[in-house]
Design a protein that fits this description.
The chain is an alpha/beta fold and 220 residues long. The protein has helices at 16-29, 42-45, 49-60, 65-81, 93-102, 115-125, 148-156, 171-180, 211-219, and strands spanning 3-6, 13-14, 88-89, 106-110, 134-135, 164-168, 184-187, 203-205. Bound molecules: 2-phosphoglycolic acid (PGA) and magnesium ion. It is an enzyme of class 3 (hydrolase).
Length: 220
């Protein structure tokens, strides 16, 4: 079976608002006040918790790996407590996934969010059952850009590892697909959308309406 694997943050859903709220909770806990702005820092948020802590601690002038390690668990805890207050699925994402399923493709998720939080978010958005597989950052001993989580997401969705593609929003997704020898589709509707073309993916989409046709062209 041909399979389409999706990244989660910044691809299927705009999770930046809840991620930034969790990071700002940490900076307030450090006594420094909110450091990240939901609009201006959205692209950093979509690169994950450690990227947000790095940026905020840089602004405070107190960045260290030890401080990032110390606050990362608290960030995840705060995020899990309010995971779906601001988060929205991108326009057309559900319809595109349903169209791919109807056309006979397997669909799954490969994210660098911890698996438990990714499951919680997908459940609360009501979209978990659309996907035949879900591989998170800690599901396997390795994470993206290692190709193995992508291969495993394809296998668990019932597909063949040499007949799939990855839809994502960052250089990490591009590198994962390249390492797997599979085509990537990058979305341009997110906060870093303007930079996607420089990564030279096999395809770019500005709206999910374009995805079924692009997938058919790339993997048949
Ligand atoms: O949390 C992250 O590091 C990014 O998550 P993603 O892989 O779903 O974009
Ligand atoms: Mg992403």
């Amino acid at each position: 079976m041909r399979t389409v694997i999706f990244d989660l943050d910044g691809t299927l859903a705009d999770t930046s608002g809840d991620l930034i709220a969790a990071a700002n909770h940490c900076f307030i806990g450090m006594g420094a006040g909110a450091q990240l702005d939901p609009q201006r820092d959205a692209a950093t948020a979509l690169r994950g918790g450690r990227a947000m802590l790095t940026l905020g601690l840089d602004r405070m002038g107190t960045r260290s790996e030890a401080e990032i390690d110390r606050w990362y668990p608290e960030l995840l805890r705060a995020y899990g407590d309010a995971i779906d207050h601001h988060t929205v699925v991108y326009p057309g994402a559900i319809a595109a996934v349903e169209a791919l399923r109807s056309a006979g493709y397997g669909v799954g998720i490969c994210t660098n969010k911890p698996e438990g939080l990714a499951e919680q978010l997908l459940q609360s958005l009501g979209i978990r059952s659309l996907f035949g597989s879900m591989i998170g950052a800690d599901t396997l001993p390795v994470r993206k850009p290692d190709p193995e989580p992508l291969f495993e997401a394809i296998r668990r969705a019932g597909g063949a590892p040499d007949r799939g593609c990855l839809v994502g929003d960052t250089v990490t997704d591009r590198e994962t697909a390249r390492a797997a020898g599979l085509p990537s589709v990058l979305v341009t509707f997110g906060p870093a959308g303007g930079d996607m073309a420089t990564l030279e993916p096999e395809a770019l989409i500005g709206h999910f309406d374009e995805l079924p046709e692009v997938v058919a062209r790339l993997i048949g």
